[in-house]
DNA sequence: CCTCAGACTTGGAACAATATTT
DNA sequence: AAATATTGTTCCAAGTCTGAGG
């Protein structure tokens, strides 16, 4: 192995690195057997202790309330030493063996083609009842074979992109009108009168008092500017500094408290009522099949909560009215009635080349749209999800070639080629996002193609340190050893430029993707993320799962999941209870240690002669033989060890978010197959909703490999 | 090409529901 | 039973990528 990419130092097991990839990125050759492994790895990121500097700092949104953890960029995770699985807590669930996976009915992979198919089988769970409910009667040709049919359609789109033939739904639901509370805020110490509209906006702000937004200058300015438009030029309120929203804030707290105090029945009544109101909006009928609608609730007005340093944070997101909304519905099907009397939809379309049911323009950014789509459990979404994974799997067949290809171009004379090669390498190896250009009026974040000179530091002899804010202003901090030509190339790209200049000045995502498409049809940068994630999960699960208890197996899954999350840089804010949680663990550990030491002392005594029988203390407590004591001690020691492991895991995972990869990057079939093979009830891994979303993957055989 | 409207996926936090502890 | 901790769900912001039209 020669120049390997990863430098993980030795170790194999808990080494800092996730994957020691031996395979090729480097020079081509290599045994192929290895190539399935993702290149991704984080060197320093996971490296030892020093790491406190390393990957941490989560950039929190200003919004998060919790007073606690105030420090936004607090320390965060440290190294990530992978520790053994160790089942931490113990709730032993009884182990229902037998994977009931199989039971799930056939996934409906219906081709989008024309006409409905007749399967009504719904995803895994429950609502069979609803779905059956007669919706649909049209029998049509059922084209199976989704994989193929899909591919073709996408590729050449004979019928172009027809997404459905018939579409029925009831439109969208509007939030209730504003109910004025009449609580007067103070201006310059005096109560002020506000119209309901003015009060509404004041309340939006007042209520955010304990979020970080409330103290951000941009937020305040934007809010105040928009609010003053509503107050009018002549209103007494002129200066933000003289505003005191406390009264309204306190009213809000009281409301919250009241709500909490409601009895269970009251709450239930409320829920039922809500359910009743929403009922009709919950479902759409697509090609005769009843499907859940994703987000039929129109977003209520509020103050925009942009993430990171968003220039528009605090702006008023005005109320959306029917007249803002465009409805998409099957031709000939009844148009949803506009729920607000006297008003009407902006437009009604019958476009079956798209999947949205409705949309409106984002009031903050006129050019953006807010769509109402079907839920993730719908077959339309399921199908494209499946296609996404199939495409990622296809990448397996091309990856060797792609790597050879870009490796060759590392030294290309053609600057564009060279930059594309290096960018592709980063996308492949680090699973970076493509990095589209962004507008001035958005938070300043970057991805691969938009990396700035200041985001990359060359550390001789051949390491690169990345430090930038990516999507959602989440910080990406990672130091990686790269192939020498890459290192040299990056150095050259940065030479003589300013901090804020693009590293890849010659390329953008369009060019990058255009190039990728030449290497494999349909290939784009994001496919590498999916590929990387799924390949990693598949490899880890298959390599590491051995016989063990259910808990142990689940722990292995979590570990693999976590590995993927780290590769994708999926982070979360540390929970406000984290510290106390740690403290509690430490306490318990100390307690055990005390116990252990006590026993040790006793053991000494016991060994020193005294036989179990004799001793002055006539106490009833029976003496233990040395062996018994030793047993006890080792028992406690094992316990301690277990707790230390949990503690370390907790600490190491406090900034890692597992959900995102589970939902978006890991081919569910890997999980399903693994569960079947190892007799793990799938619901130990997938929650109900996610199970519904992955209905299409449930009947895969235990032999499935990504 | 390039722009830019458009459509759809991905993302973390807020919030709600449950489970566990006190 | 109340208080907490944990897990699951919803919300809506922020990405990616495509395609039409110049």
TrEMBL record:
SUPFAM superfamilies according to UniProt: DNA breaking-rejoining enzymes, Eukaryotic DNA topoisomerase I, N-terminal DNA-binding fragment
Bias-annotated ranges (Basic and acidic residues): 79-94, 130-139, 602-618
Similarity comment: family membership: Belongs to the type IB topoisomerase family.
SMART domains: TOPEUc
Protein EC: 5.6.2.1
Ranges for domain DNA topoisomerase I eukaryotic-type: 303-679
Domain of life: Eukaryota
CDD domains per the UniProt record, alphabetical: Topo_IB_C, Topoisomer_IB_N
Alphabetized Gene3D superfamilies for the sequence: 1.10.132.10, DNA Topoisomerase I, domain 2 (2.170.11.10), Topoisomerase I, Chain A, domain 3 (3.90.15.10), Yeast DNA topoisomerase - domain 1 (1.10.10.41)
Any Pfam family the entry gives: Topoisom_I_N
UniProt keywords, alphabetically: Coiled coil, DNA-binding, Isomerase, Nucleus, Phosphoprotein, Topoisomerase
One GO cellular component, as annotated: nucleolus
List of catalytic residues: 665 (o-(3'-phospho-dna)-tyrosine intermediate)
GO molecular function, one term: DNA topoisomerase type I (single strand cut, ATP-independent) activity
Function: Releases the supercoiling and torsional tension of DNA introduced during the DNA replication and transcription by transiently cleaving and rejoining one strand of the DNA duplex. Introduces a single-strand break via transesterification at the specific target site 5'-[CT]CCTTp site in duplex DNA. The scissile phosphodiester is attacked by the catalytic tyrosine of the enzyme, resulting in the formation of a DNA-(3'-phosphotyrosyl)-enzyme intermediate and the expulsion of a 5'-OH DNA strand. The free DNA strand then undergoes passage around the unbroken strand thus removing DNA supercoils.
Record field: catalytic activity: ATP-independent breakage of single-stranded DNA, followed by passage and rejoining
Polar residues: compositionally biased ranges: 44-56
GO biological process terms held by the UniProt record: chromosome segregation; DNA replication; DNA topological change
Predominant subcellular localization, coarse grouping: nucleus
Protein name: DNA topoisomerase I
Cellular location(s): Nucleus
Region (Disordered): 1-144, 602-626
């Amino acid at each position: 192995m020669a120049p390997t990419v990863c430098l993980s130092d030795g170790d194999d097991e808990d080494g800092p690195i996730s994957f020691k990839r031996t395979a090729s990125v480097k020079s081509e050759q290599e045994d192929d057997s290895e190539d399935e492994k993702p290149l991704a790895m984080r060197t320093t990121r996971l490296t030892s202790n020093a790491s406190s500097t390393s990957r941490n700092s989560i950039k929190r949104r200003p919004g998060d309330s919790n007073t606690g953890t105030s420090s936004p960029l607090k320390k965060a995770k440290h190294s990530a030493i992978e520790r053994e699985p160790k089942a931490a807590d113990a709730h032993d669930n009884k182990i229902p063996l037998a994977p009931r996976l199989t039971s799930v009915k056939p996934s409906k992979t219906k081709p989008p083609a024309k006409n409905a198919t007749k399967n009504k089988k719904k995803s895994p769970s429950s609502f069979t009842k609803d779905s059956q409910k007669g919706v649909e009667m049209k029998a049509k040709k059922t084209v199976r074979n989704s994989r193929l049919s899909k591919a073709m359609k996408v590729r050449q789109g004979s019928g172009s992109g027809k997404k459905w033939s018939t579409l029925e739904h009831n439109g969208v639901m509007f939030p209730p009108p504003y109910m004025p509370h009449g609580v007067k805020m103070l201006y310059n110490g005096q109560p002020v009168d506000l119209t309901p509209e003015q009060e509404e906006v004041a309340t939006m702000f007042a209520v955010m008092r304990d979020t970080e937004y409330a103290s951000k200058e941009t937020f305040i300015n934007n809010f105040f500017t928009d609010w003053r438009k509503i107050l009018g030029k002549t209103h007494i309120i002129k200066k933000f500094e003289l505003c005191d929203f406390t009264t309204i804030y306190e009213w809000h707290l009281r409301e919250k408290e009241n709500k909490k105090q409601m009895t269970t029945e009251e709450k239930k009544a409320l829920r039922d009522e809500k359910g009743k109101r929403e009922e009709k909006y919950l479902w759409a009928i697509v090609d005769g099949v009843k499907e859940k609608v994703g987000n039929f609730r129109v977003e209520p007005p509020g103050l925009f909560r942009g993430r990171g340093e968003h220039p528009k944070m605090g702006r008023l997101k005005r109320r959306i009215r029917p007249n803002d909304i465009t409805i998409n519905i099957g031709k000939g099907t009844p148009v949803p009635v506009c729920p607000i009397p006297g008003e009407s939809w902006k437009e009604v379309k019958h476009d079956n080349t798209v999947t949205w049911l409705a949309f409106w323009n984002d009031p903050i950014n006129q050019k953006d749209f807010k769509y109402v789509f079907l839920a993730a459990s719908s077959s339309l979404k399921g199908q494209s999800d499946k296609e996404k994974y199939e495409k990622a799997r296809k990448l397996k067949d091309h990856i060797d070639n792609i790597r050879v290809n870009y490796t060759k171009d590392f030294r290309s004379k053609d600057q564009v080629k060279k930059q594309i090669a290096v960018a592709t390498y980063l996308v492949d190896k680090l699973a970076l996002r493509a990095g589209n250009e962004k507008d001035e009026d958005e938070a300043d974040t970057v991805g691969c193609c938009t990396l700035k000179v200041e985001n990359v530091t060359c550390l001789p002899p051949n390491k690169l340190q990345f430090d930038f804010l990516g999507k959602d202003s989440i910080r990406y901090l990672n130091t990686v050893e790269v192939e020498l030509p890459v290192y040299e190339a990056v150095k050259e790209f940065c030479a003589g430029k300013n901090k804020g200049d693009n590293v890849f000045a010659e390329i953008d995502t369009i060019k990058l993707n255009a190039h990728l498409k030449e290497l494999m049809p349909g290939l784009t940068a994001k496919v590498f993320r999916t590929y990387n994630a799924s390949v990693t999960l598949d490899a880890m699960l298959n390599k590491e799962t051995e016989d063990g208890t259910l808990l142990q197996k689940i722990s292995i899954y979590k570990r693999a999941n976590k590995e993927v999350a780290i590769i994708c840089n999926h982070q979360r804010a540390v929970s406000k209870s984290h510290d106390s949680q740690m403290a509690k663990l430490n306490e318990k550990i100390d307690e055990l240690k005390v116990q252990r030491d006590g026993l040790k002392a006793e053991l000494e005594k016991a060994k020193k002669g005294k036989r179990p029988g004799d001793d002055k203390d006539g106490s009833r407590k029976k003496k233990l033989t040395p062996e018994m004591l030793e047993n006890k001690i080792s028992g406690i020691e094992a316990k301690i060890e277990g707790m230390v492991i949990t503690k370390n895991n907790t600490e190491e995972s406090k900034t890692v978010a597992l959900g995102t990869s589970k939902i978006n990057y890991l081919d569910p079939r890997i999980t399903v197959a693994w569960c079947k093979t190892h007799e793990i009830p799938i619901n130990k891994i997938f929650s109900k909703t996610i199970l519904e979303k992955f209905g299409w993957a449930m009947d895969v055989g235990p032999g499935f490999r990504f």
